[in-house]
Amino acid sequence: MIERLFRFRHPLVQLEKHRLTRVARGFIPEELAPLYQRVVPDPETAIDQLEFLVVDFETSGLDPERDTILSIGMVEIRQQTLSLSSASHFYVAKPQQVKPDTAVINHITPETLAAGVSLEQSIHDLLERMPGKILVAHGAAIERDFLRRALAVDRSADLPVVWLDTLMLERSLATNRGKEGKDYRLGQIRQEKGLPGYLAHNALADSVATGELFLVLLKEIFAGLPPTLGPLYHRSLYGRA
Questions:
Q1: Which of 56, 70, 129, 148 could cross-link 206 (Cys pair, CB 3.0–4.6 Å)?
Q2: If you compute the radius of gyration of the chain from its CA atoms, what whole number of angstroms results?
Q3: Gap between the Cα atoms of 15 and 23, Å rounded
Q4: How far is residue 221 CA from its own chain's centroid?
Q5: Pairing of strands 133-137, 51-59
Q6: What is the reported pLDDT for 27?
Q7: What is the pLDDT of residue 156?
Q8: Residue 151: count of CB within 10 angstroms of its CB
Q9: What is residue 102's predicted lDDT score, i.e. its pLDDT?
Q10: Within the chain, which residues score under 70 in pLDDT?
Q11: What is the pLDDT of residues 166-188, one digit of tens each?
Q12: What's the CA gap between 58 and 107, in Å, rounded?
């Protein structure tokens, strides 16, 4: 009985209920229909049965209401293997949105963006790859909120998309070890795990770096046991086991 109640309250089960409710009500935008046609995976789903899309956005700032996406990088993971052949990277043609302080960090200049694609096209390309995949990002709130803004989706209306956050996964491990006050930057965590340095603040490089970290975290979290989605999603939401 307790196990059934726990399962009923699991965030993945609740997300599937939300999806079914929205489908029953109708009025789903055409570009989002493929997302609503896919069932949210069960908490017991084995990781090897899932496909992942690791994404990274470089933005002009941290506020999705005032700032914008400058570039998008993504790469897929299948069978716990990073597929470099699936990687893609594009810039968004919004040269007027470049701010000097962020350009110093991500090296994205107006000249770089002038040759980019429209925001609409970049989001369309991302949406085409999302159905049926679990999304992974480091500090995923940035990607999630900027995507909502680009799609004009209200914050209270969760898309039927499962996000896994490598920052929160690492925080769950640190909490278990009594090391909550650590540095959670992607490069710092990778260094602690013995992963090589990389070109930080480049959307493609960051997505690959995040994917590599995700695979290492899988091994740490499950310690030889078969990994399943439910515990990962719980850790990603709450930062604890």
A1: 56
A2: 18
A3: 12
A4: 18
A5: parallel
A6: 83
A7: 63
A8: 15
A9: 53
A10: 1-8, 94-112, 155-156
A11: 999 999 999 988 887 789 999 99
A12: 10
For tokens 């995923």, the residue is 140
Q: Supply the pLDDT for residue 107.
A: 52
Supply the pLDDT for residue 200: 82
Amino acid, single-letter form, for residue 8:
F
Position 240 scores a pLDDT of: 93
Q: Quote the tokens at residue 16.
A: 């599937």
Whole-number Å distance between alpha carbons of 134 and 53? 6
CA pair distance 130, 32, nearest whole angstrom: 10
What are the strands of the beta sheet with 163-165, ordered from one edge?
81-91, 69-78, 51-59, 133-137, 163-165
Q: State the distance between the two ends of the chain, measured CA to CA, in whole angstroms.
A: 22
Sorted by sequence, the CB contacts under 8 Å of residue 167 that are 6+ apart come out as 138, 139, 140, 184, 186, 189
Query: What's the pTM?
Result: 0.91
Burial class (CB in 10 A: 0-12, 13-18, 19+), 152: exposed
Rounded to whole angstroms, the Cα distance separating 16 from 28 reads: 15
